[in-house]
Amino acid sequence: ETNQRKTYIVHMAKSDMPASFEHHSHWYDSSLRSVSDSAEMLYIYNNVIHGFSTSLTAEEAQSLEGQPGVLSVLPEVKYELH
Amino acid sequence: TTRTPAFLGLDKANQLLIESTAGASDVIVGVLDTGVWPESKSFDDTGFGPVPSSWNGTCEEGTNFTASNCNRKLIGARYFAKGYETTLGPIDVTRESKSPRDDDGHGTHTATTAAGSVVEGASLFGYAQGTARGMAPRARVAIYKVCWLGGCFSTDILMAMDKAIDDNVNVLSMSLGGGMSDYYKDSVAIGAFAAMEKGILVSCSAGNAGPSPYSLSNLAPWITTVGAGTIDRDFPAYVTLGNGQNYSGVSLFRGNALPGSLLPIIYAGNASNATNGNLCMMDTLIPEKVAGKIVLCDRGVSARVQKGAVVKAAGGVGMVLTNTAANGEELVADAHLLPATTVGQKSGEAIRKYLFSDPNPTATVVFEGTKVGIEPSPVVAAFSSRGPNSITPEILKPDIIAPGVNILAGWSGEVGPTGLSIDGRRVTFNIISGTSMSCPHVSGLAALLKAAHPEWSPAAIRSALMTTAYTSYKNGQSIRDVATGKPSTPLDHGSGHVDPVSALYPGLVYDLTVNDYLGFLCALKYTGAQISGLARRKFTCDPSKKYSVGDLNYPSFAVNFQSSGPTVVKYSRTLTNVGSAGTYKVSIKTETQAVKISVEPETLSFSQVNEKKGCTVTFTAVGSLPSDSNSFGRLEWSDGKHIVGSPIAFSWS
């Protein structure tokens, strides 16, 4: 179960992006790589949040939450038509 | 939508609307839903000029969908499935289209309700015959498919909103919801915040979890939250019993009617070995007991139309579907696969009593077609989700109600009107119910207001819709709640039923800016990280400033008195003049003696457009009501020509 991947939305504090990164997507990727070699970004969001979505194990998600510049790692939620 | 424009007064005000909304073809309504059936006549672009130069979107290709499916009416279509596929695996293109194409019908229905072109001769099997049209028929439509067979996933919804902002839509219509989490965790609320900041009005459905209290979704104050009411149209189908009694119900069945003679009728609970046999669930009816008979089924658990299919499969020739306490007397019509009608709880109990008392009970169902002019209307739908607001009790939700019961609008050619896989019928229009249907009504009306007042903010547009909404019928009686049969309250209908013609010229609006919402987040005591995640900026609440949720310049009031808390609550408001010069006087009505209300100043004079004037509303509890009780009032500003009304909801905890 601990290796089972779930989808998360990762909120980043763009104002905390180190100057060494030319583009925020590189910073996002670097943050993700720091906790997982294999996780892929599903989407990079530009308008609604600063951040991205990805698929992680619970352990990776917890680890990512502690990385610099990471505001929150929120699990995917299923919505329903009304 | 063959009836709702007239019900909303849009037909009578035609000339006024044409003049006011001449720029409507520049307004773009984005719809996040199950996609689109582009062949629907409701997307006919005859008479439309070039796509607005502001448009940045595209028409994405995929399964059975090409760029040529878009036109000058349906100007954009995208789909978002990465989150869905990551969780549930690759889309099976033999079961659903990996493209903007709508295999479900819901998305086509909501999009055409908001902004469908005019289509003459629309009906479902002859029911609701007339000219169908969206509320903003000249507006352009952009589709963002985010809902699939397995549901709608937050990563996809968020990306669709991200793209809709890039694409430059003016209104976002979202007939979906996902529980009641804090705003900083709710993708719809997060996306809507960014949209609001770009001047996009986001209209969301309130949910179908009524009539339970605290059942609302989409509660963020930067979202327009829409509940559902009925219109003055019905589809009667009577049950005639062997004892001579008649009971009224509703149905959209079309096909071989039952014979004129009475047929045997049996209660499903007596035709099943299952403990829940009364619900007519799959494989629970005993064919030998129901063959050739009408079956009385109780509503609940499974889809209403599914129960009809179960009865039919077991050899039944007809069905009477009865509401239970959960639905009361609310009658929602369905295009059943066999002769069937839905009756209210009281009628259902009477029919059941007859079945249990007569050794050889008989019945038949008579279908009467479409009836209009039904009174009273609107009534609040039982299913429409209700307040109080479970996240921020000081913000009254829903904001407004609009037509959401038995609404005819466009449909997918991929699925029958019941949505069941065994339903081989294909229709171009379908009649369905839900706050999903009321939401796009408001989205389309917001598009009309945007066309009339391009400079108005989303909050100003919402304020206009809310402060001009009505809460009583022409005879002066209050709008009813079908769940109770009693007058509805602001917890059920918010500011009331939308009145778009009055909303065009509201006189004053309660406007809001991004900074106001940031102050609201400070009042909620959000952390820096939570505000940053929601509002995409480093924002520090001023420690020297006293933030108050009640000071958010909302067009309605919700006041909570706690037994151990203060007995005086002050809310500040600012009114912006969007009409001619005038002097507005305040008036207050309240049904309780336990709260005294005062407004300072009592008169506001405006000499020019966009002039702003502040006031303070003081609520003083002079008595106490039991915990969990509510009471209501109303505050109105009027210059003799306009009435700018706000509901007040008091609660004690």
Structure description:
The complex is a heterodimer of chains A (82) and B (653). By secondary structure, chain A is of the alpha+beta class. Chain A has 2 helices and 5 strands. In chain A, a hairpin with a 5-residue loop joins β2 and β3 (51-56). The model of chain A has no long low-confidence stretch (mean pLDDT 95). Chain B starts with a helix and ends with a strand. Chain B is globular and about 75 Å long. Chain B has 653 residues and is an alpha/beta fold. In chain B, α4 runs parallel beside α10 and α5 runs parallel beside α6. In chain B, the strands form 9 sheets. An 8-stranded mixed sheet of chain B has the order 14-13-20-16-17-18-19-15, with helices on both faces. A 7-stranded parallel sheet of chain B has the order 2-5-1-8-10-11-23, sandwiched between helices. The mean pLDDT of chain B is 96. The A-B interface holds A 6-7, 9, 11, 13-15, 42-43, 45-51, 53, 55, 71-72, 74, 76-82 and B 33-34, 82-83, 86-87, 106, 147, 151-155, 157-159, 161-162, 165-166, 175-179, 181, 184-188, 190-191, 193-195, 198, 205-208, 434-436, 439, 529-530, 532-533, 536-538.
Features:
A: 82 residues, alpha+beta, 22% helix, 34% strand, B: alpha/beta, eight-stranded mixed beta sheet, seven-stranded parallel beta sheet, 15 helices
